Amino acid sequence: MTRPLADLMRPQKIDDIVGQSDLLGENGIIHQMVESGNLSNLILWGPPGCGKTTIARALANSVDMDFVPLSAVFSGTADIKKVMDAARQNHNIGRNTLLFIDEIHRFNKTQQDTLLPYLEDGTVTFIGATTENPSFNLNNALLSRCIVGVLKPLCTADLLTLIERAETFLNKKLPLTNDAKNHLANMADGDARFLLNSVEYLSSAKFKKEINADKLDEIIQKRAPLSDKSGDEHYNLISAVHKSLRASDTDAALYWVARMMTSGQDARYILRRLTRFAMEDVGLADPNAMQIALAAWQIYERMGSPEGDIALTELVIYLSTAPKSISAYKAQNASYRTAKDTGSLMPPKNILNAPTKMMQNLGYGDGYIYDPETETGCSGQNCFPDGIERISFYKPVERGFEREIKKRFDYWNSFRKKN
């Protein structure tokens, strides 16, 4: 066997592809293209092993077009021009070309722009495959000329179907119990390529007896969860952490942090984001949250993993169960806007120091009251600039420690109203 099983079993027709019913089902855009015999330019966006290349090849076969594959990793502008010259010659003799570019997000802006005139005049029908969010990684000009099809990881039922097909193709049963087959499908984590590579190994190895799920873990290493340090999955996971914490869903927050940690994310990045969460989302409803976040960060810096991991876990639990308030965040934004709008207003003279005689003569410090010496500890004197109405930037909520702050605010404001 000189070609991988995943390539040998690649479906040649759209109807034979497993999964992706949203695109390939009766009402899916790709099914409708095949039915009409008229293909549009496509961007296929999805995780590895979900069928992007298979769909492109099957589309070419379904409408009888020449399939020309390129990889954006290894190809450049010169390769594109060669393909387009050949496609024009094909067109002159009545043959149409489907150009498939894998990892299209790897092309820079100039290389992507090179495609545009050929898409405009119909020299080729274009399909690009990417694992990265097209909105962030592809030019608007290219996106505007394409339909984006979103592919999902294959579900367990789809992967079990592939195992059955592989056994039929190989004309032999895998040495797996039914539980082990289900476990293998789960281990693949939606990746058909990983699954079929595993099937290929299992079918060729010499095992003395049937393998159960526990033994399978020893033989095949589970597919690593999707994650990276700068792409979509990275930001999707940290977003899930934040949203779970805001919802006070402790178990979900622990799960998403565990996903990040087990996929090799830097714990210091997670701790930095959790410290930001303590400031912005917990805020003054629990002022201790910031100190606990900093302490957890420092513990991890000093101890590392695995000892420092428990500090991260305790922080996640603390933040998710803490009361939440963004009143300080709102106060900051409102005060900054007002400061920009009002310009360079002078502070009122009563709260200005008067270190010289001239400043005293100008009225600096006149009427100033030293609040700690008053009977109540609050004089109610005005500290806003002259010519501006008093504005309430900070509005404490009735949660956590801010209940106490609100009581103090109401108390101090009672004196200001008298003045």
Q: Could you give a quick summary of the protein structure above?
A:
By secondary structure, this protein is of the alpha/beta class.
The amount of beta strand, in percent, is: 5-15%
User: Strands of the biggest beta sheet: in what spatial order?
Assistant: 2-3-4-1-5
Q: If helices are DSSP runs of H or I spanning 4 or more residues, what is the number of helices? A: 20
Mean of pLDDT: 87
- Which series of helices and strands comes N to C? HHHEHEHEHEHHEHHHHHHHHHHHH
- Which regions have little confidence, pLDDT < 50, spanning 5+ residues? none
Structural class: alpha/beta
The CA-CA distance between the termini, in Å, is 91 Å
What value does the Rg take, in angstroms?
32 Å
Biggest sheet character: 5 strands, parallel
Helicity range of the residues? 40-55%
Tell me the total number of β-strands: 5
Taken from the alpha-carbon principal axes, the silhouette is: elongated
Question: How would you portray this structure in words?
Answer:
- The protein is α/β, with parallel strands linked by helices.
- It is built from 20 helices and 5 strands.
- The chain has a 5-stranded parallel sheet with strand order 2-3-4-1-5, with helices on both faces.
- Helix 5 links the parallel strand 2 (66-71) and strand 3.
- Helix 5 packs parallel to helix 6 (109-120) and helix 14 (250-262) packs antiparallel against helix 17.
- It is elongated.
- The mean pLDDT is 87.
